[in-house]
Amino acid sequence: MRPHDVVTMGRVGVDLYPTRSGVGLEDVETFTKSVGGSATNVAIAAAVHGRRAGVITRVGDDPFGRFIARELGRFGVDVSQVAALPGEQTPLTFCEIYPPDDFPLYFYRRPKAPDLQIEPHELDAKVIRDARIFWATVTGLSAEPSRSAHHAAWDARGRAPLTVLDLDYRAMFWSSRAEASQAVAQALPNVTVAIGNAEECEVAVGETDPYRAADALLARGVQLAVVKRGPLGVLGRTAEETVEVPAHPVDVVNGLGAGDGFGGALCHALLEGWSLQRSLRFANAAGAIVAGRRECSTAMPSTAEVEAIMSGGSHE
Amino acid sequence: MRPHDVVTMGRVGVDLYPTRSGVGLEDVETFTKSVGGSATNVAIAAAVHGRRAGVITRVGDDPFGRFIARELGRFGVDVSQVAALPGEQTPLTFCEIYPPDDFPLYFYRRPKAPDLQIEPHELDAKVIRDARIFWATVTGLSAEPSRSAHHAAWDARGRAPLTVLDLDYRAMFWSSRAEASQAVAQALPNVTVAIGNAEECEVAVGETDPYRAADALLARGVQLAVVKRGPLGVLGRTAEETVEVPAHPVDVVNGLGAGDGFGGALCHALLEGWSLQRSLRFANAAGAIVAGRRECSTAMPSTAEVEAIMSGGSHE
């Protein structure tokens, strides 16, 4: 079997998103369903760029779990590492949509989501080792046995190039911020790329200033640090260079999933071997397209769509 | 404060029902939200008949919990005994709609729904004692502290007339059928009316034959046993009389909630002091109206609607 371009590991669920914006869940009458979860969305975004992508995750043994497997197949994402856990329920995510910048999430993942029940011995080390990019998220470290499984995956990976940690931090998944900081500190020596926003960098390395945060991430051993600064654009830093690209202008409809669109596009760009400058511009534009659309997984743009808006075209 | 006509105690949640029938959740794209939960639906149904109704239950500390409180208020149901539990999530219920007789339910109530966390000491004994009807369900016995709270409520009630137990049995809420049977056996001596279908009667008293089931319930001390027989109608039996009424003909759209519509209407009929024959005919017709509509809580008919179809009119 040909190795994957991108293998992600982590969260999956069904997104139930309101058909109305600007109101609380109290007032939403209708919800539409789609596949969600950050690690899963990144795999989908990479697949939409034509990349051979797979996701390592777990769903419930229920109709929503079957829906996820089917949808991933429709997107061309390999589901050979997706299993349904007997007796478990597929998690749900509701959101409220208050553009431009407030998108509260309500997770139904109790007592422990299937995607946090991945056991180390269940992993296919060859799939993880051979993937050109291996992408994991901090949320995957928030509970055992998933945390141990992530470390087992990194052991298999052996710090190969393009071992990415998305610093993805959501307070509700942790008993304390300090617990998350400690988990990230244990994870960083195993990865070569780290990506996060200001708050996530603070959890990871105690710095919110983007330059200091990037330096701190490099000091922990990563080769590429990417700091997402929202309306201020994005900063990429390696030992050799520092690149800053401005935010791509967008009328935000729903900011959720924009970071995953950014991530999947960055995977594509890195695999293409583009310069850091071009890679970050491409990823930024992809994220802007997703932010301009209501949905997440079904909003991931093709390479042509991203290139069209980079050359000044409209993105709708 | 004027006593309630009907006080119910038990399950509440948000129903997320598909806008399409005849397909699995995999294929449903859109869901609509409404208040649900059997005990809550019975209170709503009674309120729609003009009865002063209240429900004793608990919701999550979230937008869905606020929605429930607001909707109950809109229906005229007293929410003074409804509290939001900090840190808890309001449960969700999905269904699939395969008319005429298959309506699978998918509950998000883990690890323990707020409505099963009612503590005995939190009850207002006066409200329970003074209510003309006190209605509880077997589901409320499926976990502690709710089970103890139900027994505390029955202690306050002192086996006053119209202390109703809905034999409502859903296998997923119990570790075994035997555990449910034992809980019902402990409950029956405390109530004066028991209502259930054939399977529920089997769990309660080990009988599926409607006449033997009714007799067994009477032998356990209830004064009125009501056995719902689906297309075969309903049987009511007391020490003095046996009444059988045929099913009200209906093109079933969604059978869920029909039993609660039946229950709320039966409460109204019993409070009116109607004969058992007239009461069961009225409740049957109300249930048929709900079965002919897609939703549950928002489908409960008014007294005039029920009387219209009893006199031969259409119910839509």
Write a brief caption for the model.
Chains A, B: Its EC number is 2.7.1.92. 2 copies of one chain form a homodimer. Helices cover about 35% and strands about 20% of the residues of chain A.
List the helices and strands and how they pair.
Two copies of one chain form a homodimer.
Chain A: E1 6-9, E2 13-18, E3 30-36, H1 38-48, E4 53-60, H2 63-75, E5 82-85, E6 92-95, E7 105-108, H3 125-130, E8 133-137, H4 146-157, E9 163-166, H5 177-187, E10 193-197, H6 198-205, H7 210-219, E11 224-228, E12 234-237, E13 242-245, H8 258-272, H9 276-291, H10 303-310
Parallel strand pairs in A: 1-4, 1-8, 2-6, 4-5, 8-9, 9-10, 10-11
Antiparallel strand pairs in A: 2-3, 6-7, 11-12, 12-13
Walk me through this protein's architecture.
The structure is a homodimer of 316-residue chains. With 316 residues, chain A is of the alpha/beta class. Chain A has helices at residues 38-48, 63-75, 125-130, 146-157, 177-187, 198-205, 210-219, 258-272, 276-291, 303-310, and strands at residues 6-9, 13-18, 30-36, 53-60, 82-85, 92-95, 105-108, 133-137, 163-166, 193-197, 224-228, 234-237, 242-245. Chain A has a 9-stranded mixed sheet with strand order 5-4-1-8-9-10-11-12-13, sandwiched between helices. In chain A, strand 11 and strand 12 form a beta hairpin. In chain A, helix 6 packs across helix 7. The A-B interface holds A 16, 19, 24-33, 62-64, 66-67, 70, 89, 92, 96, 106, 108, 110-111 and B 16, 19, 24-33, 62-64, 66-67, 70, 89, 92, 96, 106, 108, 110-111. Strand 3 of chain A pairs antiparallel with strand 3 of chain B, so a sheet runs across the interface.
